Amino acid sequence: MDEPRVADWRAVPIGDFADLVRRHVGTPAGRPPVLAVDGRSSGGKTTLADRLAAVTPGTAVVHTDDVAW
Which Gene3D superfamilies match (predicted)? Predict the structure, then answer.
């Protein structure tokens, strides 16, 4: 299956992207927000997660390989 084409995108600083993610994920009452990053092998998931974690205090990155095996 072919990937869908992305017609409209722009690069933003990681801090701005982290703010956008926090606004969309929100903060559930009494629970930490959770963000799942999905994509193909070598697609940059770990890089994105690590960069978001670097600008978001108290963040934990959990790889599915850490819990699936």
Answer: P-loop containing nucleotide triphosphate hydrolases
